[in-house]
TrEMBL record, chain A:
It comes from the Bacteria. Belongs to the binding-protein-dependent transport system permease family. LivHM subfamily. Its main location: membrane. Keywords: Amino-acid transport, Cell membrane, Membrane, Transmembrane, Transmembrane helix, Transport. CDD domains: TM_PBP1_LivH_like. It is found in: Cell membrane. Pfam families: BPD_transp_2. The chain crosses the membrane at residues 7-28, 34-54, 66-92, 104-128, 157-174, 203-223, 235-263, 275-295. This is Branched-chain amino acid ABC transporter permease. It is a multi-pass membrane protein.
From TrEMBL, chain B:
GO terms for molecular function: ATP binding. Residues 8-247 form the ABC transporter domain. Belongs to the ABC transporter superfamily. It comes from the Bacteria. It holds the Pfam family ABC_tran. PROSITE patterns: ABC_TRANSPORTER_2. Keywords: Amino-acid transport, ATP-binding, Cell membrane, Membrane, Nucleotide-binding, Transport. Signal peptide: none annotated. The lineage of its organism: Bacteria, Pseudomonadati, Pseudomonadota, Betaproteobacteria, Burkholderiales. This is ABC transporter ATP-binding protein.
Automatic annotation (TrEMBL), chain C:
InterPro entries: ABC_transp_permease, LivM-like. Pfam families: BPD_transp_2. It comes from the Bacteria. This is Branched-chain amino acid ABC transporter permease. The lineage of its organism: Bacteria, Pseudomonadati, Pseudomonadota, Betaproteobacteria, Burkholderiales. The chain crosses the membrane at residues 27-45, 51-70, 77-96, 102-123, 130-149, 181-200, 230-250, 270-296, 308-334. It is a multi-pass membrane protein.
From TrEMBL, chain E:
The keyword Nucleotide-binding applies. It comes from Polaromonas aquatica. Pfam families: ABC_tran (PF00005), BCA_ABC_TP_C (PF12399). This is ABC transporter ATP-binding protein. It comes from the Bacteria. Residues 10-258 form the ABC transporter domain. One of its GO terms (molecular function) is ATP binding. Keywords: ATP-binding, Cell membrane, Membrane, Nucleotide-binding, Transport.
Length: 309, 269, 358, 416, 260
């Protein structure tokens, strides 16, 4: 029982971490109808910037406080992501107004390659460390109820909290503000949005910026867990079933989807895996998402796919 | 016409789609302040393209203005973004509705007021649109995609009005609307024109209505302006009567007895 | 005015329905085929064959298959790697388990295994659409990765899970030299491309495209979405499966599941998009772009920087390569969002009007 | 025509495995530079090389191979990746170039009578697994003490990670311990469920068969789930600096196999610093010189050079060797302690000698332990148990030959 | 011109359809006779298009049934409807955007294609002949609609009015017995409307095709239709000959207004 709880909790936390990456996808999809293939690369890029600057700043300035160095590195990395967002809009998106999803998807792929190359050129391709002082040792709760207690990973717990806050803030932003509405309008129809005076350029910079910051937070947390290295970009693939299950257009969906996928894949791996030789969690996550889709083809919270004649 | 103040003047523009398809071959037209100007012409004449060129929505269609100039109150506007134009009070109602499918009718309308910062003004505009189109009010919470064709058309027009424009480019506003509503739409146009001094440039197939309500008209054929003149003059022109009003030879012909041969248009000769 | 179709009047619909109705096209394609079959084997080096041409042909074949599903039928698939793997392992099992199994039937049977697998994972497409469908196909991808790693039977109980084939023959001719492999792949590609072209310009092709463009309207004119989608999955995964079998048998010779990884699937999809969705030619162009360009870059870049007296390390080269590659993708899309094939078509149209601009 | 022996260097400096691939590649390249600078090549034959980036991907590896294989004077290939090794195994036989896979690749390829062109020098995953079990047995106070114990293998879910399983199963049967298999999906960034399983079954030992980012992630997850690091044993690909450095204190007590020492003291490393880095010609940063994987790169290159040198002894000193001749040299290496000392490798590695039947040359490795800032040896060199390995290798090789419809090499062929 | 109006071919019985709170159709009944031109009119949002969607099987009505040639269905299946010979055009163009005009119209004949996948791939003998036979039929339609010049143009690039024609062409290619037209003349000027009317009348005349027509242009409706149904917010408020409808108080109030 204690173990079941542990697995469940582990799944929930892992799910929250996926949500954080998934959120980036949702943001950009929601605001421009683009499936942003570069999200993984953005996470990597942002994390690399953060890791290297938190290492460089003490060297350059002699600041010895970890907190100060980290805050400065975060700010610089955030600024870099802003510049990236602006460049993406200026060099790419602006020229692809009103194009089909597949075209834009390809463009984000080009961006992904570019960022991967640029990130490694600027910041190197070794494993780097982000140390934001997350506690690494586990804690045990409910020791009275279960022998040995239930293990909880504090680092995951903090990460989950940060993810939750971020998601809540973004949900409010989308649902309640005029900009949020404009973003949704842009996703539906670029041209019509332009025709009523929504400045696409500015909207896109804003969205990519927000997505950049979300990528930075995701990169920071994943990076502090795993170390910053090229493979960080591949967490995007783990986050994909989360986005789809939650619905490409739903911010809360990213969270719920994350929790379901997280729990589902951990439980399946731990309880079913041993019978079939293990290693099933990744396809199980996808099959799980698929199972939900068969009932709700637009994901749990996604906007209904409209086809009307 | 030169006595009036010209808000918009299009001077000999050429438009090419996809780098190869030449669609507009030197179109010029003027829209005087506070007037209603109609562009008439058959399918494929280039009406929509002209409006897109003015509102700078060509880019998304991979089209470009390659020659000529467009001026709004003396300012060259070819290089502005559509959003800049809306800031300057020029709004286009696109052909084929283009409502935001996932947004509700009311959200669609509110997005139309994106450039308006005053809450009171937005609320007032919303009320005004609902007053013009009561049908929209009853459907305000439906997602636009699930409303009928005509409701979407009303939504698109209403959405443009939400921006408190000083000039509206209307592309086939009457399409798909019931006759009563068509009448209403034109009444609204007239209303806004007279009361709020909004200038209109409209591309219309419903020539009858268009000429009845507008001050001046241009007739386009295959990318060129072939005829222009005061609306009343056009309405009494024999060719226009025959081809656009369906009343050639004085009598309105029944659709049942249309001849299966066609007379060549004089200006194509 | 070189490229003029004026004066080439078609007097029968048969003539008008040819694959290449314009005379110049026919001549160019004919010359190209002669060149590919006869001249290339004389000119190309072993490296060109083994490292570029053979993989290019096989990948083009796979891209062709992907294009049928994604480009023509509009079903986004990220599981192409899985279909290739099923084709490869299917063919492998027939090849090693059935005594004296000839190569070509083994390839076809491999393709049929992929067809079956494709239909199975195509079933969700009846309900799930667009990007959401990508999840179904990714499920296929990860499932096949897992299956071929975990289920020993598929790998003929090889302890490491990697398999290999030897002794390839077609009609008694050994397929071991680079030329023979090239001819084999080229012939298969030409035959399948021709068949595929026939399909996409025929009734079934119209059904696929109709489903892609507007499925409700398609249903109303009597097209059954189920039949159209599943047949697209079937045909496409057959072709991809054959390509996978060729990739394993002819190109790699010995492989593990990672040879058909999810990156492969992504790359195939990208080829099709950058080449041009819904265009057979586009598949070839896309395959060339995505497979050959990085190789060219990796060799050209150091040479280029050396000209400026700067020695670039391989790491620098590969990073620069990534950036240039990404930049080029974006650039091509900006020039022509509908892919290289469209770019080619526009160029042809310009040629047609040349020397007049419009 | 200048006399040049060409070494194609397949490497990966980008992608998920770059942190490990870079020092490895640098070691090889620096050693080549050093030999050219110090000795002027091998008996006057200059050594040239060209790097080709594979990104650890099989198809790009094949492309690199095809590109470089026909260069004049090409000596030997080291693909640096298991997947590429599989794809090249057939090709090198046709092209007659030897394939060196030091410490990786196919375990059965030790049987040189079946695998004429493969050289898994110094160890395979079977020897590695065997040595680890022996070491653990010793710690427990005898192999018989393993009875009833539980050992988990956390492995990279690929042929690389699966390779040790047959041997471990064999050992489990013999020693009566419980073997638990826990795969980790490549590249190994998400391992939570693997470690939940570890936490559930609480194995006495965990064997870690990882590469690249999987290793440090495993250590971090072990820390997060409270699994004692000193009960963890990694293969020699999970025992380099990049694997533990960024875990730091959290990896304290973690053990891993090693084929070689690390550090900058050995003479060969000093030579590299002197002849290459001091002149500003080092391939990578100076402080990476002498790290675990760097030194392994140096060893691989040294062995390749020695194969060339050995071949020259037979086929003509001062000549450029063909791939076939280098293969003979590789098959007839005899590096005793004296020779190693002369080469500047004293203490760096064990002596090794190959033969037609044995393409591995040496099967010993030792265990090292991370103390939070550096690696320390915690065992002597341990030799894998021939008794167990031999029959397994024979059986595997025979199956391979049967599948391929080939026969064992004859004694005459061994002389060629 | 005398044409023989036959028996009831399509009978709509008490159809009700609602979406959430919106009652798009409530208890609608009317019938369509063979060879007639039957118009459906009504204000925007009255449920006209929804009615066609029910006939086509795009929507499933919650209540009521549809009888087609004596067979009664609770709900129609799109494919089956097409097989039974009902074709349709759409209000918001539903053409296959990526295909050429020719392919769009050819796709209308897909139901008639008999050769299987393999034959099509090889394109030998019967498959090729079949293709050519259908091409001939389609070319007739193209001639008829006067869109020869656009044969190979992707429909997405055509101006709106021509797209409408292609849409009609696709429906005609099915050689339907019943043709449902949803605002075929929206966005056309008088001249073009005259053309369109001519097409509709010709089809009706020559092939005896039954036509169900939704249209807002009263001139057209009154001139060419035999009988008219009037819907208003889901309810039927009138049914009869054009003259009857024109003089119906309710209809005038709800739809026609005073100007007509
Ligand atoms: N995106 C496009 N790409 C290529 N050609 C186009 C494009 N849009 C329009 N055209 C072409 O431009 C010409 C003019 O089209 P336009 O839409 O301006 O006509 P229109 O006068 O608005 O017609 P309608 O009354 O039918 O709307 C047509 O021949 C059409 O084929
Ligand atoms: N799928 C749907 N979901 C929700 N509401 C719908 C749906 N389809 C139609 N409606 C509603 O049903 C009503 C009737 O729509 P319909 O499209 O049939 O009108 P119409 O008579 O064709 O109008 P128009 O002349 O404007 O085209 C409208 O109010 C519309 O909003
Ligand atoms: Mg138009
Ligand atoms: Mg309607």
């Amino acid at each position: 029982m204690a173990f079941f709880l542990e697995t469940l909790l582990g799944g929930l936390m892992a799910g929250m971490l996926y949500s954080l990456v998934a959120l980036g996808f949702v943001l950009i999809f929601k605001a421009s109808g683009v499936f942003n293939f570069a999200q993984g690369a953005m996470v990597l890029f942002a994390a690399l910037a953060m890791a290297r600057f938190s290492e460089w700043i003490p060297q350059w300035t002699g600041i010895s406080s970890l907190l100060l160095a980290n805050v400065a590195a975060f700010v610089i990395a955030g600024a870099i992501m802003f510049v990236v967002a602006w460049l993406i809009e200026f060099l790419v998106l602006r020229h692809l107004v009103n194009q089909e999803g597949a075209t834009l998807l390809m463009a984000t792929l080009g961006i992904a390659y570019f960022l991967e190359g640029l990130g490694q050129t600027l910041f190197g391709s070794s494993i780097y460390k982000i140390d934001i002082g997350m506690p690494k040792e586990p804690i045990f709760v409910l020791e009275s109820a279960f022998q040995g207690g239930v293990l909880i990973n504090k680092e995951d717990l903090y990460a989950a909290l940060i993810a939750a806050v971020l998601v809540a803030a973004l949900s409010v932003f989308f649902q309640k503000t005029a900009t949020g509405r404009a973003l949704r309008a842009v996703a539906d129809d670029h041209q019509a949005a332009q025709s009523i005076g929504i400045p696409l350029n500015r909207i896109w910079v804003i969205v990519w910026c927000v997505a950049g910051v979300v990528a930075l937070v995701a990169g920071m947390i994943w990076g502090s867990k795993l170390g910053v290295q090229f493979s960080l970009a591949t967490v995007a693939l783990r986050a994909l079933p989360v986005v789809i299950l939650g619905g490409l257009t739903s911010v809360p969906g990213a969270i719920i989807g994350g929790l379901i996928i997280g729990v589902g894949e951990k439980l399946s791996e731990v309880y079913l895996g041993p019978f079939v030789g293990g290693g099933i969690e990744i396809w199980f996550a996808y099959v799980l998402a698929l199972g939900f889709l068969l009932f709700r083809p637009q994901g749990l919270f996604g906007e209904k796919i409209i086809d009307r004649v | 016409m030169d006595t009036q103040k010209i808000v918009l003047s299009v001077n000999g523009i050429e438009v090419i789609y996809n780098h190869v398809i030449l669609v507009l071959k030197g179109v010029s037209l003027q829209v005087p302040q506070g007037k209603i100007v109609a562009i008439l012409g058959g399918n494929g004449a280039g009406k929509t393209t002209t409006l897109r060129a003015i509102s700078n929505l060509l880019q998304g269609e991979r089209g470009a203005v390659t020659k000529g100039s467009i001026e709004l109150r003396g300012e060259r506007i070819e290089n502005l973004s559509p959003a800049d134009l809306v800031q300057r009070g020029v709004v286009q109602v696109m052909e084929g509705r283009h409502c935001f499918a996932h947004l509700t009718i009311e959200e669609n309308l509110l997005t139309g007021a994106y450039t308006r910062k005053s809450k009171a003004e937005v609320a007032a505009n919303l009320e005004k649109v609902y007053a013009y189109f009561p049908r929209l009010k009853t459907r305000r919470t439906s997602q636009a995609a699930y409303t009928s064709g005509g409701e979407q058309q009303m939504c698109a027009i209403g959405r443009a009005l939400m921006a408190s424009p000083s000039m509206v480019l209307l592309d086939e506003p009457s399409m798909g609307l019931a006759p009563q509503i068509v009448e209403e739409v034109f009444n609204i146009v007239q209303d806004l024109n007279q009361k709020e001094k909004v200038t209109f440039l409209l591309a219309e197939q419903n020539t009858n209505m268009a000429l009845k309500y507008s001050d001046y008209g241009y007739i386009m054929e295959s990318g060129r302006v072939v005829m222009d003149g005061a609306a009343a003059d056009l309405a009494s022109n024999e060719d226009v009567k025959e081809f656009y009003l369906g009343v050639g030879g004085g009598e309105r012909k029944s659709f049942k007895d249309v001849k299966s041969y066609k007379r060549r248009k004089r200006w194509l000769a | 005015m070189l490229y003029r179709e004026n004066g080439q009047f078609k007097t029968t619909y048969r003539a008008d329905q040819q694959i290449f109705p314009i005379l110049q096209d026919r001549i160019v394609v004919g010359l190209f085929l002669v060149f590919a079959f006869a001249a290339v084997p004389l000119l190309a080096s072993d490296y060109l064959f083994r490292a570029i041409l053979i993989p290019f042909l096989i990948i083009s074949l796979a891209a062709l298959g992907v294009n049928i599903l994604v480009g023509y039928c509009g079903q986004i698939s990220l599981g192409s790697g899985a279909f290739m793997a099923v084709g490869a392992y299917g063919a492998y099992n027939f090849f090693v388990r059935v005594p004296n199994m000839p190569l070509i039937p083994a390839l076809i049977l491999g393709g049929l295994c992929a067809t079956f697998f494709g239909i199975l994972f195509g079933l969700p497409s009846l309900r799930v659409k667009g990007l959401y469908l990508a999840v179904a196909t990714l499920a296929a991808q990860f499932f096949s990765d897992w299956m071929f790693l975990r289920i020993k039977w598929f790998t003929n109980d090889s302890p490491s899970g990697s398999v290999s084939v030897a002794d390839l023959q077609v009609f008694g001719l050994p397929i071991d030299s680079a030329q023979s492999k090239y001819w084999l792949c080229l012939s298969i590609l030409v035959v399948i491309a021709l068949l595929a072209k026939n399909l996409v310009r025929g009734a079934i092709g119209r059904e696929w495209m109709a489903i892609r463009d507007m499925d409700v309207a398609a249903a109303v004119i009597g097209i059954r979405p189920m039949y159209a989608k599943l047949s697209a999955f079937a045909v496409s995964s057959f072709i991809i499966g054959v390509a996978g079998a060729l990739w394993g048998f002819v190109h790699l010779g010995s492989w593990e599941p990672a040879a058909f990884s999810v990156e492969f699937s992504f790359r195939l999809l990208f080829m099709v998009i950058i080449g041009g969705l819904g265009s057979i030619l586009g598949g070839f162009l896309g395959a060339a772009f995505i497979t050959i360009l990085p190789i060219v870059l990796s060799q050209a870049l150091p040479a280029l920087t050396r000209l400026f007296g700067y020695e670039m390390g391989t790491a620098g080269v590969s990073h620069a390569e990534l950036m240039i590659f990404g930049g080029l993708i974006v650039w091509f899309l900006i020039v022509e969002p509908h892919g290289l094939a469209k770019l080619w078509a526009v160029a042809k149209q310009k040629l047609r009007l040349w020397p007049f601009p419009h | 025509q200048a006399k040049e022996q060409f070494f194609p260097l397949l490497s990966y400096r980008t992608g998920p495995y770059a942190p490990n691939g870079v020092p490895w590649a640098n070691g090889k390249q620096d050693y080549l530079k050093m030999v050219n600078a110090r000795d002027g090549g091998i008996n006057g034959v200059k050594l040239t090389y060209e790097e080709c980036e594979t990104g650890y991907a099989t198809d790009r590896g094949v492309e690199c191979y095809e590109r470089l294989k026909s260069r004049p004077g090409v000596a030997i290939f080291d693909p640096q990746a298991t997947g590429i090794t599989f794809a090249l195994t057939e090709k090198v036989a046709a092209d007659k170039v030897p394939l060196i896979t030091l410490g990786y690749g196919l375990s059965v390829a030790q049987d040189g009578q079946a695998f004429k062109w493969n050289f898994p020098l110094m160890g395979s995953y079977w020897t590695a697994a065997d040595i680890l079990i022996q070491h653990i047995g010793k710690k427990e106070g005898g192999l018989d003490k393993l009875k009833g114990k539980k050992i988990a293998l956390v492995y990279h879910d690929s042929p690389f990670g699966k390779e040790p399983i047959p041997l471990l199963q064999e050992r489990a049967k013999m020693q009566g311990f419980d073997l638990q298999l826990i795969p980790v999906t490549a590249p190994g960034v998400e391992q939570k469920s693997a470690w939940l399983q570890v936490r559930q079954s609480r194995p006495d030992y965990v064997l870690l068969w990882g590469w690249g980012v999987m290793n440090s992630t495993a250590l971090k997850e072990a820390q997060a789930t409270g699994y004692p690091r000193d009960k963890m044993y990694g293969v020699w690909w999970a025992g380099a600096e990049p694997d533990v450095k960024d875990v730091g204190e959290g990896a304290k007590g973690y053990n891993a196999l090693t084929l070689n020492t690390s550090g900058q003291q050995p003479k060969v490393i000093q030579d590299i610093l002197k002849y290459v880095h001091a002149k500003g010609q080092g391939t990578g940063p100076k402080d990476e010189v002498g790290s675990v994987l760097y030194t392994r790169g140096v060893i691989i290159q040294m062995l390749s050079n020695e194969a060339v040198r050995r071949a020259q002894e037979r086929f003509g000193k001062g000549k450029v060797m063909t791939g076939e001749q280098v293969r003979w040299g590789m098959e007839n290496l005899a590096l005793d302690q004296k020779r190693l000392d002369a080469l500047g490798f004293s203490g760096v590695m064990q002596p090794l000698s190959t033969s037609c039947a044995d393409h591995m040359g040496s099967t010993s490795a030792r265990v090292q332990t991370w103390d939070g800032s550096k690696w320390n040896f915690s065992s002597d060199f341990i030799q894998a148990d021939e008794q167990i390995l031999k029959p397994m290798i024979k059986a595997g090789a025979d199956k391979y030959l049967a599948d391929k419809k080939m026969t064992r090499r004859t004694a005459a062929d061994c002389q060629s | 011109m005398s044409k023989k109006i036959g028996d009831v071919i399509l009978d709509i019985n008490n159809i009700s359809l609602s979406f959430g709170g919106v009652k798009a159709l409530s208890d609608i009944s009317f019938n369509v006779r063979e060879h007639e031109i039957r118009a459906i009119i009504g204000p925007n949002g009255a449920g006209k298009s929804s009615m066609l969607n029910c006939i086509n099987g795009v929507y499933s009505p919650q209540q009521g049934s549809i009888t087609f040639r004596g067979q009664t269905f609770k709900h129609m299946n799109s494919h089956q409807v097409a097989v039974m010979g009902v074709a349709r055009t759409f209000q918001n163009l539903a053409l296959f955007k990526g295909m050429s005009v020719l392919d769009n119209i050819m796709s209308g004949r897909n139901l008639k294609i008999k050769s299987n996948l393999l034959l099509q791939a090889l394109r030998i003998g019967p498959a090729e002949k079949e293709e050519i036979k259908h091409r001939e039929a389609v070319e007739k339609i193209i001639d008829f609609l006067e869109i020869q010049a656009y044969r190979k143009t992707p429909v997405g690039q055509l101006p709106y009015g021509l797209q409408k024609r292609v849409d009609l062409g696709r429906a005609l290619a099915m050689e339907p017995q019943v043709l449902l037209l949803d605002e075929p003349m929206a966005g056309m000027n008088v001249e073009e409307k005259q053309d369109m009317c001519r097409f509709v009348l010709d089809v009706n005349d020559e092939f005896g095709t039954t036509v169900v027509l939704i249209e807002h242009d009263m001139g057209v409706v009154m001139d060419i239709s035999d009988r008219v149904v009037v819907l208003d917010y889901g309810k039927k408020i009138g049914d009869g000959t054009p003259d009857e409808v024109r003089n119906n108080e309710d209809v005038i109030k709800a739809y026609l207004g005073t100007s007509h």
